[in-house]
Design goal:
Chain B: GO terms for molecular function: 5'-3' DNA exonuclease activity; 5'-3' RNA exonuclease activity. The complex is a heterodimer of chains A (111) and B (258). Chain A has 111 residues and is α/β, with parallel strands linked by helices. Chain A has five helices and five strands; from the N terminus they run αββαβαβαβα. Chain A is globular. Chain B has a single domain, classed as TIM Barrel (Alpha-Beta Barrel). Classes of the chains: A alpha/beta (111), B alpha/beta (258).
Chain lengths: 111, 258
Amino acid sequence: MTVSEIVDKLNLAVWGGEDGLHRPVTGGYVSDLLSDVMGNASDGDVWITLQTHKNVMAVASLKEVAAVILVKGLAPDDDTLEQSNKENIPLLGTKMETFEVAGKLYELLKK
Amino acid sequence: MNYSKNKEDGLTIFRADLHVHTCLSPCGSLDMSPVRIIEEARQKHIDILGITDHNSTRQCKEIMDLGHKAGIAVWGGAEINTREEVHCLALFDDLKALDAFQQWLDRWLPVVKNKPDYFGHQVWVDEKENILGVEDRLLIVALDRSMEQTYEEVHRLGGVFIPAHINRKSNSLISQLGFVATDIKADALEISPETKKEVIKQMRWAEIKPVIAGSDAHYPEQLGTGITLLKMNNSSLNEFKKALNGVRGRTVLAIIDI
């Protein structure tokens, strides 16, 4: 499954990093502690978080995640969005809370 | 006071503990009253104190007044919990700025009622330890403002902004945001108490911003356990800003343990 398919199926907003929408997704990771994400996320994961700081994209790039989903309708900081476009890592958004979007993503990836 | 004036440059080395809680912090000991803090600082030959309760400046004025009488410079401020849940120190030495900053805190602190049985009492007191007020809102929750927004507000009011205990396992720049970005908006970085000198060297934080220490004292005996030596012309916050920028010989010397 690609990031693009997940965007369609979960009706996600695309804040930035459109050039990376073809990336394959192999799993998911949920955490708001970037130190934890640095230690435990895997490449190809979709990372779900409420943090909007620029460091999010640095960690996303370091871990080579497929995409980042910001929850609860949170908008990225300007420099976070800029970094998403630069790194071609899709920065996605949803009004759903973490529990709901993680559950839906899990169902999709299980198939 | 045991500091000495250098004859050549006319600058003095000041001993500063820039991260001290009071009885107002729910986790702070009720023994941390203004009079006790100043007495403890006097005994430990501390020249400059930063008073930094969680998300509140309401105990600062009493300690600033007492410090003035005792010849100890007291910078008032707070330990902010930002939206990212990163603890950051804000320091001011001007009461007007402190008042304005308190209004900003009141505006952005979410209303969550304190449960003293769980979290501790939140009171501020006068120099005779009479209670002046009780804070009903829980002070340790996160403000609805990001680190960057907090930095901007502190600077707008002429204060100094320092991420606290950056390498602690919780509520720190590194725990919440992963690493210290080289272009971080901050005036200095406070390392956690008991950080080994080799770690400070190895992490090369000092190449990003001046590194300072603070005790993060919640009990009287902890006060002064993290000391920063500041070489300055006097003990004003303005001189501290110059020291952070290395203006005309002023500097943040070193972190020492006592």
